[in-house]
Amino acid sequence: MINKVNNLKEDSAILTTIRGGFNQFYAQQKWSLTGPNKKLNEKLLEEIRSSTVFRNEGYSDYKMTSLPKSPSTITKRQLVKDIFYLGEKVDFPKSIVKKISQHHAWKIERIGIKNPKKILAVGVSNGGELIALRAMYPRAEIFVCDWIISLSKKMIDELNIKNVKKSTICEYLKHNNEFDIIYTNHVLEHMFNPDETISLLFKSLKKGGVLSSGMPLEGDVRNPLKNRTIRLLSGKAFYRKFNMGTVNIGHPWKTTYSDLCLTLRRSGFKKIEFFKFDDYTAAWHIVNPLPKEKVAKNLKIRLILEKLIFGTIRNIFYKIDKVPNIILRVYYNFMHASWFGESRIVADFTPEVFFVAKK
In sequence order, what are the beta bridge partners of 100? Predict the structure, then answer.
């Protein structure tokens, strides 16, 4: 069944819900729904068709701080030096450490808590944010929670990470709390239940503690593929497995400033501050600073190529009753790796925001 939508707005946030921890994990890992479990693939496709909701409510009473310069010019030199020092100790290449500094240092400096005792880092991937957190807070106890743990023993030892747990956020927070800081970076958009998750994050903070997070605003009208996403998910265009690059259930919460602020407010946070750069919108621009006119030209070229190549392939797929999974896997691998694929366009041009919400 297709979700019918009333009061759909251009700036609506979008939430796709999948029930059950295993199903959620499967959908994150096999977001194209071409994984080995064919029955589950079909079940999840039907579930997202019927469960997607458009969130039109919002809250605009938040503080927005614009940062006029690039991250490298506003980050303290000593913090950058400490990040490179720790990066070398855990055998990270300098090129990777540079990106860690660009993406995390300016965010962590704006958390605004001195001498925290307990920090929870959620969704740490290879541990880049742990290097930045340890450089900023050398004496804090750092705890880690993630669906998949890929940290080396050397990193855990050198950075003195106290507890590393393979778990969902919600399950972890039922047994662990009283944190001064909870730090996530490009994690919350993966939540199928953001209202419940952020409420638990709020409850797990000490009084005066902060939730600090960087995330893309894929519900924002500046997402180049927002209109295409709305058209598919609202039922105005019936979508199939080869449309999953647009639907992208790997990011089920496609939020906006007002939707994000309302979600934080309803969870109990009262003091919320958003940070953004005037000249750099998406995370890609921070690492690849370009003049605005060149950014616009880059996007235009990508959209033309995407329509010409992947749009043509999708038009062929529409004429086939059932596209074999093996062909879809090849299509998605090609799309995901391409400079002009849907996922790269959204990732590289959707606005990124960093927020600090205080309990």
Answer: none
Q: Establish how many alpha carbons lie within 13 A of residue 81's alpha carbon, considering only the half-sphere containing its beta carbon.
A: 3
Single out the residue of 40, 52, 37, 39 nearest to residue 1, CA to CA.
52
Q: What is the largest CA-CA distance in the chain?
A: 61
Token code pair at residue 112: 């605004």
Angle made by CA atoms 101, 264, 179, in degrees to the nearest 5? 60
* Dist CA 169 CA 189 (whole Å): 13
**Closest CA relative to residue 131, chosen from 165, 164, 88, 95:** 88
User: 198 near 350, Cβ under 8 Å?
Assistant: no
CB 2 within 8 A of CB 50: yes
- Name the range with the highest mean pLDDT among 60-69, 98-107, 285-294: 98-107
CA of 276: how far to CAs of 219, 267, 269, 279, 352, in Å? 16, 23, 20, 9, 7
Could you tell me where the beta strands, DSSP code E, fall in 68-129? 118-122
Query: From residue 158, how far is each of 78, 123, 330 by CA, in Å?
Result: 19, 19, 40
Query: Which single residue is written with the structure tokens 């919002």?
Result: 58
Listed in order, strand segments (DSSP E) in the chain are: 13-15, 53-55, 63-67, 118-122, 141-146, 161-166, 179-185, 205-216, 253-254, 271-277, 352-358
Residue 53 has phi, psi (to 5 degrees) of -125, 150
**What is the assigned CATH class of domain 63-224+255-287+352-358?**
alpha beta
What does the pLDDT look like over 209-219, one tens digit per residue?
999 999 999 99
The partner residues of 210 in beta bridges, in order of sequence, read 181, 358
pTM of the model: 0.92
| Tokens coding 321 | 């009753």
- Domain ranges in the chain are 63-224+255-287+352-358, 292-337
**180-205 pLDDT per residue, tens:** 999 999 999 999 999 999 999 999 99
